[in-house]
Amino acid sequence: MTALLNVDQVAARLQVSRWTVYNLIRSRELASLTIGRCRRIAETALHDYITRQTEREAA
One Pfam family name from the record (predicted)? Predict the structure, then answer.
């Protein structure tokens, strides 16, 4: 089972602001889901985002 992270946890892991995380979600660069009124990001989605960014930087 994949862990679900909240926006604050993702922001802390990426060392960015909550606003930046919400922008990544809005632009669909970072996949997320809504449970009730809470936005959650799967740990695998965060890993995929980091992998894509790393590959872009390497290219």
Answer: HTH_17
